[in-house]
Write a structure and sequence with these properties.
five-stranded antiparallel sheet; single chain; alpha+beta; 444 residues; five-stranded mixed sheet
Length: 444
């Protein structure tokens, strides 16, 4: 079983690629900033701590015992610094637990001496504690640990989140600006595909490549409109020029040919030529169709009534009377007439020589599926896709080539003009016959 491929619109593809690119850029920027910020911040913090220790050491060294108490009290009140003697029984927790704190400890020892101790708590009292000596006496200096803290993870998270949000919004805006001209081009191309040649794109846009594409598209639309206009005029002329001599031939045959059988054969040939002209005109008909709610059963019954010869074809309709579809009444009638005619010619039963045709319907969501089935021999599976190709005939059709090979091609083109789909299939064995399915929008 083939795996279903995931498809993305051009907007989402551009948005995702821009988002991934900018996201990696933010990640790389954060890592670079942290690497560049790490060393200076650690050294600066160690310098500040070493300066506090040196100032405290100098102050205590040159103060007598009476003033030393006052000095310690003043330092504690004004600088939030606490000094106390160090005892051998003191318990402490090491400060150096990660790369940042180890770098601070290394810098402090290089400035204060190799015996310097840095701790996060002393005798279960938290803080940033630094052990130093004054004339062979050891002291603990306690400072606020916030002096040496790195940027908190929460701060990084907030800033990175803001950057990612800005990246998402910026990517969406850039993707929209990039894809807007392409979206307009796609919309204009779809209108041309539906036969509307009035679409015009902006030829004053600042982007040179888009401007050239728009100018080329507008030029193409003008040429197609001119071709369509010339084709309509040519078809009208061909129809008139061919039918006028055909009418004269019919009149001359009726008046000049005495043999009844020859006159009947000539009239049949003229009718066949006239029918072939109709097929060409139907296939080349312009693509604009005005869709309105149409009673499906009424159109089916009207077209069934045109096939009165029960020795050749018998049609049964099982379409509910309240079924409505969005279609053009005339075009839908032409579609059904072509399908009935195709069944009359090539869907006859081998036993009775009569084409038995069934017309049914089914509602599926917003669609109505119309099924026209005969009980003939069907078509080889490999030839089913070719039946809607203009001028293609199956084997049975070649042996009795009375048409132009455009009937099913006209059906497919007309159904597509009405916003529907058309498909052909063979009946499942042991049954035989060709099944035609038309899917049209359900009328409100």
């Amino acid at each position: 079983m083939a795996r279903k491929r995931v498809t993305l619109s051009l907007f989402w593809r551009t948005f995702i690629l821009l988002g991934v690119l900018l996201g990696f850029g933010i990640f790389a920027w954060v890592q670079t900033f942290r690497a560049l910020e790490f060393e200076p911040r650690a050294v600066q913090a160690a310098q500040q701590l070493a300066s506090l220790v040196n100032l405290s050491r100098a102050a205590l060294r040159y103060a007598d015992s009476i003033n030393r108490v006052t000095l310690l009290k003043t330092i504690s009140e004004q600088e939030s610094i606490k000094l106390q003697p160090s005892e051998k029984a003191d318990r402490y927790e090491p400060f150096e637990t990660d790369r940042f704190t180890r770098r601070i400890g290394q810098e402090l020892r290089s400035r204060l001496g190799p015996t310097t101790i840095v701790a996060t708590s002393v005798n279960d009292t938290p803080g940033l504690w630094i052990d130093f000596t004054i004339e062979n006496d050891r002291y603990w200096l306690q400072v606020d640990p916030g002096r040496v803290q790195a940027v908190a993870g929460r701060t990084w998270f907030i800033w990175v989140s803001i950057a990612l949000l800005a990246t998402i919004l910026g990517s969406a805006g850039v993707a929209r600006l990039i894809n807007q001209p392409l979206k307009q081009l796609s919309f204009a191309a779809s209108r041309i595909r539906e036969g509307e040649f009035e679409s015009r794109l902006d030829e004053e846009t600042l982007t040179s490549e888009i401007r050239e594409v728009n100018m080329g598209f507008n030029r193409m639309a003008r040429e197609l409109a001119k071709v369509e206009e010339d084709r309509a005029v040519m078809l009208a002329g061909i129809s008139h020029d061919l039918r006028t001599p055909l009418a004269r031939l019919r009149l001359e045959a009726e008046m000049s040919v005495n043999d009844e059988e020859a006159r009947r054969n000539m009239a049949a040939d003229i009718d066949q030529l006239d029918a072939i002209i109709d097929k060409f005109m139907d296939y080349a008909r312009p693509g604009e169709v005005k869709l309105v709610p149409v009673h499906l059963s009424s159109v089916v019954d009207r077209e069934i009534a045109a096939f009165r010869d029960t020795n050749q074809i018998r049609i049964v309709s099982r379409v509910a009377i309240d079924t409505k579809v969005m279609a053009d009444d005339t075009e839908l009638g032409r579609v059904l007439a072509n399908l009935f005619e195709n069944a009359r010619r090539y869907g006859r039963s081998a036993n009775s020589g009569i084409a038995r045709v069934e017309v049914t319907y089914a509602r599926t969501g917003p669609w109505v599926i119309i099924t026209v089935r005969d009980h003939g021999a069907g078509v080889p599976p490999e030839k089913l896709p070719q039946l809607t190709t203009p001028f293609f005939r199956g084997d049975a059709a070649r042996t009795a080539a009375t048409g132009a090979g455009l009937g099913l091609a006209v059906v497919e083109k007309t159904v597509m003009r009405m916003g529907g789909t058309f498909e052909l299939s063979n009946a499942m064995p042991p049954d035989t016959g060709l099944i035609a399915r038309l899917r049209l929008k359900k009328a409100p």
